[in-house]
């Protein structure tokens, strides 16, 4: 199926994407893709190095006649989000992505595609390999671990790069030019409890929430999508209040930067309440489905008999857990007062794990305003601490402050209008881009972000537009020819 993708135009771009997607590259496990990139640069005879955290830098001199232009840094991240459908059998640690063409889209079979940020990586690879594309001196920067902490960008030291302009190829709408982004912080709550035996004369049940769209916890947070952890907690809260439901285990969500699509809970209910429990829960399910009828048409909530669990949470621990999860904010917290239709601050309750005497709740809080980011993080902390959790903040990274007077912005907006007959949308985004972090050690670098259209990033519905990739490739080539002189 990858051959079908390799035949697409521009072949230079799609072939490099296919090469890259044959290499497993989960976040935190980038050893194989780092080796792949080092070998790629060395085979081209270009200066190639790996820094102390694992970022790969490949330098290519300017083509003839372009020596007087400013050196540019072309940057994308090597890692990808790993999500798959529940019924898809796939090992991200050992298998390459299985791609296919669906009309104007390239998709993967039941998994994320890796177009985020693989198409950016492939673009840079194609340009490094080319011998007929005019360009200034290039420093290609391939960062690691963007998706789970941005530790590659954070670990990049000053002095390794000389470029004056950075082209970040990680924006997902081809009519947008990005000049700012949100920062983020992980908020993690943990607690312990003493398990107790299930009450006598109880029945075991398994509750499953699935079929949600999921998506990017920054770019998709304002789309009214369902959060599996919030939906599950609503079911458990109501059933505990009305029928004394006892929680044994909860497993919801997977990655902090993906809106959770699935949650599974094993519970016990007193046999005397069995019929009423089922009727009441079905009513709640219908209410939830009605609320999400527009945005989550494939939502499924399944209640089925299961083995009776041996151990459950004590009533007090369950009381505080369900209330804390109800209280904890999920979704948009504040819209920007400076940019139309831009989310300023949000939270994603990404992962909830309960069982064996342990509770763990993982959140990703984002904001383009640092003080607002920690205001929401502290609100979450308060909710979780009230239930007795220990709460930690980690992986904090800064946002990228917009510079509307950027020289490279003027170049891109002019070229876009000339090529397409319409103006590009100059925006800031609610996703986390590495520009803000890179700017801490390279404060004078002029930065911009753009890319081809990618939909459904961070979910198995991720897909890349073929026609958009063609438009974007032409745009990249024009940008390279029009980099300002030194």
The CATH topology of the largest domain is Aminopeptidase
Query: Strand tally, please?
Result: 23
* Helix amount: 25-40%
Q: Assign the structural class, choosing from mainly alpha, mainly beta, alpha/beta, alpha+beta, or little secondary structure.
A: alpha+beta
Supply the number of structural domains. 2
Query: What is the CATH architecture annotation of the largest domain?
Result: 3-Layer(aba) Sandwich
Averaged pLDDT:
96
Which radius of gyration do the C-alpha atoms yield? 24 Å
The top-level CATH class of the largest domain is Alpha Beta
Q: What portion of residues belong to β-strands?
A: 25-35%
For the record, what is the CATH homologous superfamily label of the largest domain?
Answer: Zn peptidases
- Low-confidence stretches at least 5 residues in length (pLDDT < 50)? none
Determine the number of helices (DSSP H or I, runs of at least 4 residues): 12
Shape: elongated
Q: Quote the distance from N terminus to C terminus.
A: 45 Å
Main sheet record: 9 strands, antiparallel
Structure report:
The two termini are 45 Å apart. The model has no long low-confidence stretch (mean pLDDT 96). This protein is an alpha+beta fold. It has twelve helices and 23 strands. It has helices at residues 2-6, 11-21, 31-43, 115-129, 151-155, 228-243, 274-291, 315-327, 370-386, 407-420, 435-441, 466-481; strands spanning 47-50, 56-60, 72-77, 99-102, 105-108, 138-143, 165-168, 176-181, 183-192, 196-197, 202-210, 246-252, 263-270, 300-306, 311-312, 331-335, 343-355, 358-367, 390-397, 425-429, 446-449, 454-455, 463-465. The protein is elongated and about 85 Å long. Strands 9, 11, 12, 13, 14, 16, 17, 18 and 19 form a nine-stranded antiparallel beta sheet that branches. A six-stranded mixed beta sheet has the order 1-2-6-3-7-21, with helices on one face. A four-stranded antiparallel beta sheet has the order 4-5-23-22. Helix 8 (315-327) runs antiparallel to helix 9 (370-386). It has two domains: 2-182 and 400-481, Zn peptidases (Aminopeptidase, 3-Layer(aba) Sandwich); 185-397, Alpha-Beta Plaits, CATH 3.30.70.360.
